[in-house]
Amino acid sequence: MNTSQEYQISAFYKFVKLPKEELSSLKETIEKRAQDLKIRGLFLLGTEGANSTISGAPDSCEAFKNFLSKETPIGDLTFKDSIATYMPFRAFKLKIKKEIVTLGDTDVVPQSTHWNHISAQEWEDILKNDPDAIVLDTRNWYETEIGKFKKALDMNINEFNEFPEKLKAMDIDKNKKVLIYCTGGIRCEKAIIEMQKQGFQNVYQLEGGILKYFEEVKNSDEWQGECFVFDRRVAVDKNLNTSTKYTFCPHCGQPAYKEVSCVRCEKPQKICDKCLASDKKEFHTCSKNCAHHTKKGSRLRTKNQGLTRQELHKRIARKA
Known about the structure:
18 strands, 30% helix
């Protein structure tokens, strides 16, 4: 008998005016319902609306979604759902923020969340049939390294508040059709307003972001790789299944997929490219604990002890 637990993950956002003086009370109400339903996740709340990804048992998630839509001033919501075989969050955290997605300009608030949106299928048709359309990825650099639309320009963003200046530096023809996208759509809601301010005339965003695209468009070759998500799954594939390729690097927290044998205890572990390329042996370990002891010069003996970086890489290549 299969006794494995399934957890639903629901991502959503909405720009809606919420009175500042009511946020604390609303926070307490939402936290109480999340606790009662054993919901975990991250919830951002502000005067401009709500932005969240939550997880729990499927019936609990549905009850929580119904509560948010019908019993709070947030109102009707559109959700992007997927399933995992383990809980992707450690706790439920609700934070009151100035911006529910941080552009660094509190005056940029969408008045309509359907302005110049195109459906996943419309997006797909343009990608296949309009070679002159420019595709712009508004996500962070480590997200684009995991996967992106094959025609997309990578803005090399560290944090979303860099978007306005990065956009100026790209010197894109402002009269051309520009398609923009992000994970779930919320960053594009502000990005499209900023682009209009900078003089772009023909900008369209992917409705529901990559996650909605994965739901609605199957077997497309326009997307390459996987999609980074901000929880313990690290990424999902084109079928919205939890990544089997990526984990988080134990040293820096970036997505990692290259497996090494720890130079201290020989336990296999995936680490990121940056740590793998480091000359410091403590970054060629399976954990912060092994890294600490390696840095101190621990005498734990293994068959990898004393190898140079080049020798270690040769051994990893032989195992691959």
